[in-house]
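Give me the fold.
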Amino acid sequence: MNRRMIAPVIIGLLGVSVLLWLANWQMQRLTWKEAMLAEIEARIQAAPVPLPVQVDPKGDKYLPVKMSGISGPVGVGAPEITVLVSRKDYGAGYRVITPFLTDGRTVLLDRGFIRLEQKTEPRPPVSLTVTGNLHWPDDRNSSTPANDIAAGIWFARDIADMARALGTEPILVIARSETGQGVRAMPVGITGIANNHLNYAITWFLFAVAWLGMTGFWLWRIRQRLD
């Protein structure tokens, strides 16, 4: 091998090795993420239990619960919080969050989705038996607007703020059973959990192929000059 080719060969082999290592690492991450998602899905779909007296945000995330009580405080003009969301099958609308009185305590209930025009429809207190999942959603990021309390439009499910506004414990149950009054359940699922590791792995594999191709072209140019 000509001495001029040594450096390109070393650079080429090192580059391809690093890129293939990154691709393999992403495949390992894919296996880990798929196992984690399967575990979360199994937990979400497990048989419901009564609402725990003491709730652990970490240990009880996605815990299925079943509770009976009243959605909305007893009285006229039951308050609720409407959180702006979008559904692929319906478009823009709102999540309806209400206080839920059960066994002498009041928690937050995410009843599900309504269309934009349903926001002003009355939803008086109603007795319900609800199956759902405990959740601590992470809706807010750097681009999320501040909640417009005056207009009655929230842009994120900020549990502590919602609990203060509705006078409940800072516990959110997302209904997976229908709660009536034109509200469509939006149950917890794994679709919102990112899993891009396969795409990343393919990208690194393609970079490795491109690097190998450029190295071959570099060596070919050197050989052409030598000839």
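The chain has two domains: 3-40+195-226, 63-175.
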